[in-house]
Amino acid sequence: MHVTVLGGGSWGTTVAALAARNTRATLWARDPALAGEVNARQTNRRYLEDRPLPAELRATSELAEAVGEADVLVFAVPSYSLRAVTRDAAAHARPGIPVISLVKGLEQHTRLRPTEVLGELLPEHPIGLMAGPNLAREVLDGMAAASVIATKDTSLACALQPVFRSDRFRVYRNDDVLGSELGGVLKNVIAIAAGMAQGLSVGDNTRAAVITRGLAEMMRLGEAMGAEPRTFAGLTGLGDLLATCMSPLSRNRRVGEELASGKTLEEVVAGMSQVAEGIRTVRPVVELAAEHGVVMPIAAEVDAVVNEGRHPREAYRGLRSVAAESEVHEVA
Questions:
Q1: 139 and 216 in one domain?
Q2: Which DSSP state fits 55?
Q3: Does 299 lie in the same domain as 273?
Q4: For residue 51, what is the domain's CATH number?
Q5: Domain check: are 197 and 226 in the same one?
Q6: Among 47, 81, 142, 159, which one has the highest count of C-beta atoms within 10 angstroms of its own C-beta?
């Protein structure tokens, strides 16, 4: 089996490295210099410092070559470029090969999830995703972690599990594609709120409350859209949420912290080498919530900070004004 990963960022490179230890693997990077470094030095210093990559991993900047040899095609590009990359890749993909998304965002104007974009442009291919509490640097360092392959085709999930697993990276499966994907999308928004709490020094009690109530918002929207509630208690829900909200390696948490320090969004983005998906995702999430009649006050406050210039301090004052009712049945 030949796995091709499209996207030379930290997580795309890490997943390609995992696959390369089990089967043939190719990493496509848009930048020829980055692809050359992977081949010559077995590193990706732009995103992963000097962490060594497997000697078996091959990289290329030629999209047609990378896609044409794939038995499994993995997309690890930012959500805003997913449609363009998929459209270019579609002409070179062999019929019927499985397609897996690592993307954790929404297409802004359509509010489509990554698997929906892939399904629209690659309609004859089985589509799935891999997600979980997976901080790339920790996984590449060999720290124990776990992920989930979500697809409606259980036989496909079973076939792909050994492709990506290692002694310290466990791969589970789940047939709730919607819930698994929404967890990865929504947690980035809550992580910005958690980062604002950290930056404002409002205390661990407050941060824990925000994360917990954020999970409740994720579950409400997920259920309204048809996802399985129990999925949000798993690796792609609570697991991914905790890792993204708590780790200083989290890009979305960093966005919240730096906004709380007084930086503008433009200054925060200019200082980052990788995309924080929560910035682009929060407005479509708020729109989805309105469409489904779901109240998401934390997401709404993050949207006001990111898109309307509200200071995080004002956002937290706004959250304090929300009346507390029944924890189980309340809407806020």
A1: no
A2: T
A3: yes
A4: 3.40.50.720
A5: yes
A6: 47
143 and 12 share a domain? Answer: yes
Give the Cα separation of 39 and 27 in Å (integer): 10
Domain edge (last residue) among 156, 175, 194 = 175
Per residue in 129-181, pLDDT tens?
A: 999 999 999 999 999 999 999 999 999 999 999 999 999 999 999 999 999 99
Lowest mean pLDDT: which of 182-191, 200-209, 226-235?
200-209
Q: pLDDT tens-digit profile of 65-123?
A: 999 999 999 999 999 999 999 999 999 999 999 999 999 999 999 999 999 999 999 99
Place of tokens 């929504």: 186
* Domain that residue 304 falls in: 178-320
- Decide: 112 and 120 in contact? Cβ < 8 Å: yes
Distance CA 256, CA 200 (A): 9
Does 327 reside within a domain?
Answer: no
Amino acid at 106: L
Number of domains present in the structure of the chain: 2
Q: How would you classify residue 201: left for phi > 0, otherwise alpha for psi between -120 and 50, otherwise beta?
A: left
Q: What's phi and psi for 186, nearest 5 deg? A: -75, -30
Q: Are residues 236 and 247 in the same domain?
A: yes
- Active-site annotation holds for 152: no
Task: Give pLDDT tens digits for 229-253.
Answer: 999 999 999 999 999 999 999 999 9
Q: How far, in whole angstroms, is CA 57 from its chain's centroid? A: 23
Burial category of 285 from C-beta neighbours within 10 Å (exposed 0-12, middle 13-18, buried 19 and up): buried
Q: For the full predicted model, state whether its pTM sits above 0.85.
A: yes
Check whether residue 105 and residue 15 sit in a common domain: yes
